[in-house]
Design brief:
- The chain has 2 domains: about 45 residues; about 60 residues, no CATH class.
- The chain contains 4 helices and 2 strands.
- Helix 3 packs across helix 4.
Amino acid sequence: MSILSSSYNGCITDSIRFLGNPQWVKRIVIFYKEERAMKDGKSIGSTMEKGLERLAEQILSFDEASLVHLREKYRVMIEHFDGTKDWEKAVIIFCIINAVSMKNSLFNENVLKRTKTKAERSSPQGQGRPGLKRVK
């Protein structure tokens, strides 16, 4: 048996006995890191968020046309489940490729909507003037 101590506000507040369960050790280490990060004025979530933002920046630099060529490769890989890390990575990559395609579709739809609304505003009928009609 070993004894782990956790620190809170610079004081030893608690002693935790490890009873041979590795899950408890992981939980204690995570708790300690979170407490330490909060004490330092940081949060684990913000560190993770910064990492995700950097990842998004890198993904945005990829060309969708190049990614589309890879989609089929990763689709085939994830259809053949084997439960390995490579399979898990293939699922993430496939989802990222689809996310880039979805982002571009949403972007294009919104640009098209803006263009239509600007065209409607600039047309004579959109400015409150009545349109001319031919009457026989």
